[in-house]
Design brief:
Blueprint: E1 4-9, H1 15-24, E2 28-34, H2 38-47, E3 52-54, H3 57-60, E4 67-70, H4 77-86, E5 90-94, H5 101-114, E6 118-121, H6 128-139, E7 145-155, H7 164-180, E8 186-192, E9 202-208, E10 214-220, E11 222-234, E12 238-242, E13 250-259, H8 263-267, E14 271-279, H9 288-302, H10 310-328, E15 334-335
Parallel strand pairs: 1-2, 1-4, 2-3, 4-5, 5-6, 7-10
Antiparallel strand pairs: 7-11, 8-9, 8-15, 9-10, 11-12, 12-13, 13-14
Helix pairs in contact: 1-9, 4-5, 5-10, 6-7, 7-10
Amino acid sequence: MGTIRVGVIGCGYWGPNLIRNFSSCPATEVVAVCDADPARLEAIGRHFSHVTRVGSLDELLTLPLDAVAIATPVSTHHALAERCLNHGLHVLVEKPLASTVPEAMALLDLAERCQRVLMVDHTYLFSNSVRRIKAIVDSGELGDLYYVDSVRINLGLFQNDINVVWDLAPHDLSIVDHVLGREPRSISAWGCAHADPRVEDMAYVNVDYDDRLLANFHVNWLSPVKIRQMIFAGSRKSLIFNELNATEPIKIYNRGIELGEGPDERRQFLINYRSGDVWSPYVEPGEPLQEAVRHFAECIREEKPPLSGGALGLRVVRLLEAATRSLRAQGGRIVLSHSHQGATTHGFADSRANGSSQIHADRPGRPAGQKRRPVRVR
């Protein structure tokens, strides 16, 4: 197979980043871009004059393509990906995969039937920092994990089609899913809407992974400062990932508590505090999106499952949908039931089993009963 010909759908916030990285990847070339806004297409043409620019998906699908990358509003992901898969194209979708669990499951099934790669752009999974974190956790250096605490806050880009949970939480939910490699038991979420009463702009999400392991996620569009931090706290050591620290993004702390080993000591609740060294492992610099693009091309060429395949995308959507239901119930805890269908047999299938939840939310961040808007490429 020669160079993979890619079309990029959506030239708003994330689309230009995809265009740049697909253009610089030796295995791919951007043949065309698609957007309903002529001004956006004109802006792309100033930097990529050789790329064909079209205003509709119908026009795009007449061109010779092998794959598409979709960077449009979440509500359009299912319809656009469905058409492209049915057209025989491999598909990379911006996170999250879809706006509901049934939509995500339908895309997984369709990709399997069409034998095409379906990959979700959970870019952090291709970060050298996250790869190092997973290696450290898998090695047992931290001991038994007690909790994960994540903060992703800033003066954010307000959106009217999704709330802050659907915008920011997919990043950290996908990281924790990848690092832990286990299914959660339940989820609860609290949030408030300040700028628009229909859309939460700050929220706290709590996920119970059983075995005394909790994960907390704070997402916020209102913060005056930008913080990107995750703590993985274990029985032996703890790890802090500070995304904004370019030179030392990971620090490991040999600090914590030690419980008495004997029954008498435990009964008396005797606790010793341990304070040891702090060290920062070397993390090689790199652009995660470039690695994600390279991986997408590799999966197409070698017919292998993506690291961030459709099954991971489904698991994240399932958590987002459950979090939305909890928000509507003022933090009510949602017990997640998993319908394990097993990994599909085709070579592009995700290595972990597909899972679904029995809960359902009408739409990410949309009040119940509000109608969908017509799908439009933006």
